[in-house]
Structure formats: structure tokens, C-alpha cells
Amino acid sequence: MTTPNRSEHLALFAALNTTFAGLHGLGDHWVQNSRDASGKGARGTHLVYAADGKPVADDPWRHGKEGRTCTASAYGRFCVTRHVASYSAVQLLASVAVTRAFGMHVPVRALLAGAAVNGLTHAALDRREPLLWLAARAGKAGYIQHATAVRKPGDAAPELSGPGKALMELDEAAHRAIGVGTALVTTWLATRRTVR
């Protein structure tokens, strides 16, 4: 059995971690569509239109395809699933491109496992409740309540989520930290030796 080349392992980890961190914003903001960005945190048993997430009670007269309804929670799950699919596609394509450009071969199972870890945790955080729970346990509830904004004149309550808010900063920090873990898992799976 040959001794693994530790510098190659470290180089793979660095390449993956840099790729995940560098392209996080592309997958999380640029590729994500506006509907998914605003709808992924939707929750509740009230009916909304599947086409745009607007409450049925606000406009009860839609018909045909535009009139299809679902619960707000189902709408939120659909939006976050579509967002995570596009985010994971960016991550996978970039990982393959970068590692191949440097002559590294990463097994598909390692790439898919890393994408699964990143995608599942990304989906959980973007549904907001797990992120709020985590922030409360870390003592950040006051920070979230303090760093809010009222975007539109006449809005009664400030927004907790979105650009310029504490919750978004905590979301980004958590995603980036998970990206380090994802790079580590992917590297470990790609470089471990099986003994027969």
C-alpha cells in the first residue's frame, strides 16, 4: 500500500473550499430566481396560489392553471427545493471544472455526497425556522431583532430577512462554514483508500 500524498489532499481541499466560497454568492443570489428567494421561507396551512405564492384570500377569482392552490408550507418547500437544485448544480459544475483544470480526478460519489451535505443543510437553513432556532441557541436573537429594516413606507413591521439584515448575515456565515465542512467531506471521500 502506498502512502497517500498529503499535499495532494490539501490541494484538493483548498481547491474545493475556494470554489465553494468563491461561487457561493453566484449560486445563492444570481442563479436563484426572485420567486424562490421570496417564497422559500413560506409557512402555514393557509392556501396560496402555486404560481406565485399569493394568498387565495386576497384574490379568490383565479381559474385554470393560474388558479391551482397549495398550502403556504408546500409552496415554501417547492421554492427552496428549486433553489437548492440550482445552487447544487452551480456547485457541482464548478467543482468538476476546477478540479479537472488542475488535473485532479474526484470520484462522482464524493462530489455527490458533498453536494448532498451542502444542499440538505442549505435547504434547512433557507426555510428560516432552523436558522432562527440555531441563532437563538447561539445568543443571536437580540442581534436579529435589532438589525432589521422597514423597506416600504407604511409597512407595519420591519423585515427580519433579506439584504442588510442580521438574519441574512448569519445565513451567509452558516452557509460558508458548512461549505468548509462540505469540502472536507468531499476531499475525505475522494482520497480515502479502501483496504481489501
Give a description of the structure:
By secondary structure, the chain is mainly α. It has one domain (6-40, 76-191). The chain has 7 helices and 2 strands, in the order ααββααααα. The protein has helices spanning 6-30, 34-39, 72-101, 108-126, 129-137, 141-146, 166-191, and strands at 47-49, 69-71. Strands 1-2 form a two-stranded antiparallel ribbon. α1 packs across α3, α1 packs antiparallel against α7 and α4 (108-126) packs antiparallel against α7 (166-191). The radius of gyration is 20 Å and the shape is globular. The mean pLDDT is 87.
Explain briefly what this protein structure is:
With 196 residues, the protein is mainly α. It is 62% helix and 3% strand.
Helix content: 55-70%
Whole-number total of structural domains: 1
Cα-to-Cα separation, first versus last residue: 10 Å
SSE string, helices as H and strands as E: HHEEHHHHH
Present the secondary structure layout.
Elements: H1 6-30, H2 34-39, E1 47-49, E2 69-71, H3 72-101, H4 108-126, H5 129-137, H6 141-146, H7 166-191
Antiparallel strand pairs: 1-2
List keywords for this structure.
mainly alpha, 196 residues
